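TASK: fixed-backbone design
INPUT:
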């Protein structure tokens, strides 16, 4: 039943992103106006080995006759995980042990950025009460999203609870975020609460083929990129990589550009893999 719920997120979707800062928690902070956006996106299975499932999101949008493709985020699910990769503060992610009690019957969800560098990880359980199919995480630290990072705000991280709700005709990702500042050292302090509701409605109103073609052309490259990140994480018990406001990580733009060159036929997969490994090695060297 849990596996069916995870795999129910696969499909072609019109996506609506709705972000609202609702409650200021410091006297001198004024919550931002709500921010809404949207697009069309496909979600595809990267691998499914039973107790491990990986889903890749790819934005497929059309504007003034042009097709816009963006390899978006990836979500990896692991049943009863022994560890989970968690955000430990600026530029640092750490493999965190999961106790036997916490992992019993639970799934971890690890979310990765566009270049397969880490974003956040948490552990939770699927429940099926009151007619709702929902996975709820424990409190999860996350780096700032681009929408916030580019403004250089007073906060520098989120502490959030994530819910994935499967519904007729799609699914919803609900985030309850407390935006925190840790810049003064010591214990991070709460600045403002934010509600995020990202709605995925199944759609046949756009052509998903360009996204599938992109994935067919680049999936072998991205498999090697994932392997390179995984090797660093296993070696170091986590990973240190510089965050960049506009793109998430310092590796994002060059790794994405290599994939675009493969898709355009101007670079071989093997050449791109070799360059990608060097980029990741250089970015994670301490």
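OUTPUT:
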């Amino acid at each position: 039943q849990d596996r069916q719920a995870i795999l129910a997120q696969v499909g072609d979707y019109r996506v609506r992103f709705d972000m609202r800062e609702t409650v200021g928690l410091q006297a001198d902070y004024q919550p931002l106006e709500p921010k809404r956006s949207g697009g069309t996106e496909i979600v595809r299975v990267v691998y499914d080995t039973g107790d491990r499932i990986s889903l890749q999101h790819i934005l497929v949008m059309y504007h003034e006759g042009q097709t816009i493709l963006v390899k978006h985020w990836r979500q990896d699910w692991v049943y009863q995980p022994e560890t989970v990769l968690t955000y430990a503060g600026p530029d640092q992610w750490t493999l965190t042990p999961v106790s036997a009690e916490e992992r019993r019957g639970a799934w971890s969800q690890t979310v990765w950025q566009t270049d397969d560098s880490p974003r956040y990880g948490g552990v939770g359980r699927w429940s099926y009460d009151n007619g709702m199919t929902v996975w709820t995480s424990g409190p999860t630290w996350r780096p700032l999203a681009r929408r916030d990072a580019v403004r250089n705000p007073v906060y520098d991280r989120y502490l959030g609870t994530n819910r994935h709700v499967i519904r007729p005709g799609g699914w919803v990702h609900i985030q309850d975020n407390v935006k925190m500042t840790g810049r003064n050292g010591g214990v991070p302090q709460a600045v403002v609460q934010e509600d995020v509701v990202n709605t995925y409605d199944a759609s046949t109103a756009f052509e998903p083929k360009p996204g599938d073609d992109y994935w067919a052309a680049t999936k072998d490259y991205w498999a090697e990129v994932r392997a390179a990140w995984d090797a660093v994480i296993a070696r170091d018990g986590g990973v240190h990589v510089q965050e960049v406001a506009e793109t998430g990580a310092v590796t994002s733009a060059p790794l994405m550009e290599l994939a675009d060159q493969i898709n355009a036929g101007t670079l071989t997969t093997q050449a791109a893999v070799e360059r990608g490994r060097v980029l990741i090695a250089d970015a994670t060297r301490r």
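COMMENT: The two ends are 43 Å apart (CA to CA).
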